[in-house]
Design goal:
Chain A is α+β, with helices and mostly antiparallel strands and 93 residues long. Chain A has a domain of 60 residues. Chain A is 41% helix and 25% strand. The longest helix of chain A is centred in the first third of the chain and has 18 residues. Chain B has 269 residues and is α/β, with parallel strands linked by helices. Chain B has a single domain, classed as Rossmann fold (3-Layer(aba) Sandwich). Chain B has an 8-stranded mixed beta sheet with strand order 3-4-2-5-1-6-7-8, with helices on both faces. In chain B, α1 packs across α11 and α5 packs parallel to α6. The longest helix of chain B is centred in the middle third of the chain and has 16 residues. Chain C is of the alpha/beta class and 203 residues long. In chain C, β12 and β13 form a beta hairpin. Chain C has a 6-stranded mixed beta sheet with strand order 5-7-9-11-14-15, with no helix packed on it. A 5-stranded mixed beta sheet of chain C has the order 6-8-10-12-13, with no helix packed on it. Chain C has a 4-stranded mixed beta sheet with strand order 1-2-3-4, covered by helices on one side. Chain C folds into 2 domains: 79 residues, Transcription Regulator spoIIAA (2-Layer Sandwich), CATH 3.30.750.50; 107 residues, Pectate Lyase C-like (3 Solenoid). Classes of the chains: A alpha+beta (93), B alpha/beta (269), C alpha/beta (203). Chains in contact: A-B, B-C. At the A-B interface, α2 of A face α7 and α9 of B.
């Protein structure tokens, strides 16, 4: 039950939402992260990981986001979601 | 030899022109410095109106840059304050009417005559902005406590750093202490934290600003205006004095507010 | 005509042609032609600066001069000060009729008389070599007789400009804004001062 919502107050102050959104936006802005840039990382990741395991290239997801580092600290993060099909035997590599 | 300071923001409508007018007037009035305000917003000039000097313009910045008149012919002396002058922008031309090189030359020339040359930059990061910063030694970035304005300010910090500006200073405009208290507006620390530049001052939202702009008389000279006081503090800081940030009448939540927040009630003011 | 209609002077970076105030252009043409003819090779490749004592030459005259000079291998330079810009004579018979509001940042420049069926807002500029008539509120800058015609007038249904100019004279409204008259007014030059009168006193 969301006790706070009953009283008409959102659980997070809107200024904190603003600040967090800004942090994330600025990571993109400052690094000049374009979709093209992410595609570049993606293709290099695929190349590199393919040496060790077979992955589902179409299912690969890469995005800029934020994660909770500590209880109250969120940090921007590059999160990759890579579905693995098969791990190669080390001896074959 | 004077100093050229550009006042810029990226985003429009955050108060560049008001800041330029007030800091300039303050430097002339309280610092007893010889000051010229340069309106670099060609095609959308406003500094003349804010200063109440719109009916005195004969020549403008573009005329000077293109050699159509002498520098002194275009300078307009303020009607109230000694030592204060305006270099108006052209209204019927566009940003491409001058080049960064011409602006640089103009600033160099003005520096010989004035202690402070304050350049009011247009919004945006295109040619008008490039012109405005071309001849500047220092930069002041104006923002408001909004996500969009802070984001644009960050972009400007980046661009200024890339073109060799050291330590631009930040002015936070239109802060609303009541909203900060409720947690519905980013506070000073939030913004400094994000932008990581030095703070020149904070101006509280003040309806006196609207009134003074209507009249064409900068609020800095109005002893009863809170925003005026904030501008006077900034002027002192520009002049090298160490002035503490003015207390924004209960910027910090009072005990009672904290209590209300604790119970999850929206503090109403 | 006692004086020569035109003076041709050699300067360190070329020659300067000075047109006298009341010169007949045909005489001028003839004199310049003969002068150049007499020293044909001497002048070739030189730069020519043009000055006119009456403050302007017409576009047509300018073109003719340019043609003559080009034939002798010389180049006519851009005028070096606004005072010697090339203008035709003001022509009162030309009228520009604008059926719209002139807004901030818009500049209307016209050789002749400008009539506006609408308002001229603050930040607009209307420049005419002849008269300016605004059938609405004039709140911007208006410059009548822009080439020196001191008989030019500015008239408006509501005359409250940011600035008025007639010929070389510039004026701005008084600081303390009195109640603005609610009738048409007309501005004209009297003894080098811009005076404003109610329009209805004129016949």
């Amino acid at each position: 039950m969301d006790f706070l919502k009953i009283f008409g107050r959102e659980s997070v102050a809107s200024k904190d939402i603003a600040k967090e959104r800004l942090r994330l936006i600025l990571v993109h802005d400052r690094a000049n992260v374009s979709p093209k840039f992410l595609e570049m990382i993606k293709s290099q990741l695929i190349d590199m990981i393919s040496n060790y395991m077979e992955i589902d290239e179409d299912g690969l997801e890469l995005k800029m986001t934020r994660i909770d580092k500590d209880k109250n600290v969120t940090v921007p993060a590059l999160v990759a979601n890579i579905p693995i099909k098969k791990v190669k035997h080390l001896s074959r590599i | 030899m004077g100093e050229v300071i550009v006042i810029t923001s990226g985003k429009g409508g955050v108060g560049k022109t008001t800041t330029t007018a007030n800091l300039g007037t303050g430097l002339a009035l309280y610092g007893n410095k010889k000051v010229v305000l340069v309106d670099a917003d060609i095609g959308l000039r406003n500094l003349d109106v804010v200063m109440g000097l719109e009916n005195r313009i004969v020549y403008d910045l573009v005329d000077v840059a293109n050699g159509m008149c002498r520098l002194k012919q275009a300078l307009i002396k303020d009607k109230r304050f000694e030592n204060l002058y305006l270099m108006p922008a052209a209204q019927t031309k566009d940003k491409t009417a001058v080049t960064p090189e011409q602006m640089k030359k103009l600033c160099e020339d003005l520096k010989q005559e004035f202690d402070y040359v304050l350049v009011d930059s247009p919004a945006g990061i295109e040619q008008g902005f490039k012109n405005a910063v071309a001849g500047a030694d220092k930069a002041i970035i104006v923002t408001t406590p909004e996500v969009s304005a802070v984001r644009d300010a960050d972009r400007i910090v980046g661009l200024l750093e890339a073109s060799g500006f050291e330590e631009p200073k930040l002015v936070i405009n239109r802060l609303r202490p009541d909203m900060v208290r409720r947690g519905d507006m980013m506070d000073i620390d939030d913004m400094i934290d994000i932008l990581a530049i030095e703070l020149l001052g904070v101006v509280p939202e003040d309806e006196k600003i609207v009134i003074s702009t209507n009249r064409g008389e900068p609020a800095v000279a109005d002893e009863s205006s809170k925003a005026g006081k904030a501008y006077r503090n900034m002027v002192s800081r520009l002049l090298g004095q160490d002035v503490p940030l003015m207390t924004m009448e209960n910027v910090e939540p009072s005990f009672f507010d904290k209590l209300r927040m604790f119970f999850g009630l929206k503090a109403r003011t | 005509m006692g004086n020569k209609p035109v003076i041709i002077k050699g300067t360190k970076d070329g020659i300067t042609i000075i047109l006298e105030e009341n010169s007949n252009f045909e005489d001028v043409e003839k004199i310049i032609y003969e002068k150049l003819q007499s020293g044909r090779n001497f002048f070739a490749g030189g730069k020519v600066y043009l000055k006119s004592k009456k403050g302007f030459v017409s576009e047509e005259e300018y073109k003719k001069l340019q043609e003559i000079l080009t034939n002798f291998g010389m180049s006519l330079q851009e005028a070096d000060s606004p005072k010697t810009l090339i203008f035709p004579k003001p022509n009162r018979s030309r009228v520009l009729l604008l059926k719209r509001t002139v807004r901030s940042g818009q500049k209307i420049s016209y050789r002749g008389t400008v009539v506006i069926l609408g308002d001229a807002n603050p930040g607009s500029e209307i420049v005419a070599t002849g008269d300016i008539l605004v059938m609405g509120a004039l709140r911007g800058m208006a410059h009548a007789g822009a080439e020196g015609d001191v008989s030019a007038i500015v008239a408006a249904f509501r005359l409250k400009p940011t600035q008025l100019r007639i010929a070389e004279i510039i004026s701005r409204p008084p600081e303390d804004k009195e109640d603005l008259p609610q009738f048409p007014e007309i501005a004209r030059l009297k003894d080098n001062i811009i005076v404003i009168e109610p329009y209805n006193t004129l016949k």
